[in-house]
Amino acid sequence: MKTFMLSLLLSAQALAAGAGVLGEELSVTLKAAEEGALAASNQYKSAKFSEAAARAAAAASGTLLYPRLSLDGSLRYNEVVAAIAMPPALGGGRPLGDNWNYSLGPSASWTLFDGGALRCGYKSAGAAASSRSAEAENARRQAVLKARTAYFQLQLALERVYLIGENLQVSLSQLKDISLGARAGSRSRLDEIRAGQETLARKRDLLRSRANLSGALRDFSFITGLELPGTADLPMDSRMAGRDYGGAEPASLFVKAEPYEAILERLLPASRSALEPEPPSVKAFGEAGRAYQAQAGAYKAERFPRLTLGARSSVDYPNGPNLYSFVQNSASLALSLPLFESGRSSEKEKESALNAAAALEKRDEAALAAQRDFDKTRDAWKALTAEQAINSGAVDAAVEAAGLAYEAYRAGGGTWLDVESANLKALQAKTTAAETNAEILLKLAVLDNLTGSVR
Hints:
By secondary structure, this protein is an alpha/beta fold. The chain is built from nine helices and nine strands. It has a single domain, classed as Up-down Bundle (Outer membrane efflux proteins (OEP)).
């Protein structure tokens, strides 16, 4: 009976391993993640709509600088028509018009002088559009940075799952070797138990790391809009497909990410670039300040005279007492000068000037913050690069130490605790190197966000 149950267990493990092979593969790239994040970012799309609206407003303000041509018409009915009394010899009384009156024709007007109010308004609208454009660019960069961060986190989660899986396979191989030795009497039962405990610990670590990978994958999906298969729980790295992990929970999804070296090569130019002279976050405040300054000029110009030239050609009816239509051509020159407005334009000018000062102060603060972030990030990147050189040597040493510790144990020159400790240190060294890789990529992504060097 025990033999039968053991056979069933082994068969179930084989089926589980086989199910992993049949799992679906999901390949994700950094470029696709960036494009997906831009398509899914409501904040970026909102910023683009605001930019388009501001540019339309600027174009509308520019039209006021040119002549305006319109078709004007009017129709009026007068109940009482004035009449002039005339002697009967001259035909008697005669009405001075008709009950119905109409006028129809094109009119043109052009502001010749207004103290620069319309031109200042156009400049203000143009600067506001530039500010919205900078905000849209900043939103684009933030969306890309979020996508890159999510991708690097996913890449790190995949690497952790893979490294723990590799360590688990080593533990399984060593457990098998020790179990055979325990049965033959060359190894102690205590070592077999400890090896089994280490294997169980790695299985538990693998399960947890796969759960973390599932969470990272769903965060990545949320940010980039990537649709996941229905069975995206407990995924594995694509390099793990078809391998035996001691009956671990089968994976229905294998995720493949780009190699670290390929992404590093793409982002590395950001480390050699200087801070952008005017990052979008700084430019947005600067353009907003210029928009307020131009607006202040427009309110100041409202206190100057306004001279408007007009022209009209129309068909009118009636022609005084003559009841027929006629063509009337006319020209006009209108002058208006505000004499009293309770200080409205002065206060509005003051408001705009203060808003301009506030925006420029924010611009200066944003510039200082950008310089600080750039310096901090580049310093951190340099430190991480130096640290990774140390990590590389530490990984080689830890892997070699793990192999030597196990060989010494097999030769009877060490204990299983030495082997277990060496295996754990090798895993920790590899995980630390993978985490440092992810941090390096993240720092490069931040540098690119501040320099705009990578597209």
